[in-house]
Amino acid sequence: MFEELKDGAALIIGGSGGLGSEISRLFARTGSAVAFNYHRNAERAQALQAELAGNGGRVLMQQAELADIAALRRLFEQCETQFGRIHSVIYASGPTVRISAIADLAPEQWAAIVDADVNGFFNLIHVAIPALRRSRGSLVALSTAGTRRFPPLDVMSAGPKASVEMLVQGIAREEGRNGIRANCVGVGHIEAGQGLSIQQDPRGKRLAERVLAATPLRRMGSAEDIANAVLFFASSMASFVSGEMLCVDGGGHV
To answer: Thinking of the domain 3-248, which architecture would CATH place it in?
Structure first.
């Protein structure tokens, strides 16, 4: 299974983060080469690189910020040079957001989060589309299940991710003729990444408790749950699936 992923690399933006690292591990276990960037935490990125290489994986790590188009181009060029093709581009990045009511947000706070998430994602796809045309590959973006059912006090996550989802749908529509598939995974209440960091805020902890109580499966998900959904979209199992959003949230969006 997943033989097609052994030809080339998955390039994971945010690949050393709480969710991105599990996605990186899962792709490596399929036999795919893995390339990932990091923003500031070089120590964590180096540890993941060593782990993947130690398990026999083919891995490339580079520092690259989404605001730096030149750095993104270098990352893509190095990945294609080293591994031949990029079969999947995974957007597993996103700024840490604060819990807030819309009325309490300052315009500069909103502008900063939109710049980091929406404009950052646009920069990524600007560089990624030519590479994915060459490989007839797959784009998978992590979004939030909150775009399907408004999450109280979490508009700073759901608002920008709604724009990310629209860009993904646009790529699915416009680039399908070039063999590109584009899909989103809607992240629910997960015991990793921001799902854990939000609980450091007392309001975030109370909100998480309410979300958990309203989740039909009555539990939090895992980073592996998200990684499995990403792998499905990137693989031939989803070869006729594009423009979709799959909520991995224990049924919380229902």
So the answer is: 3-Layer(aba) Sandwich (3.40)
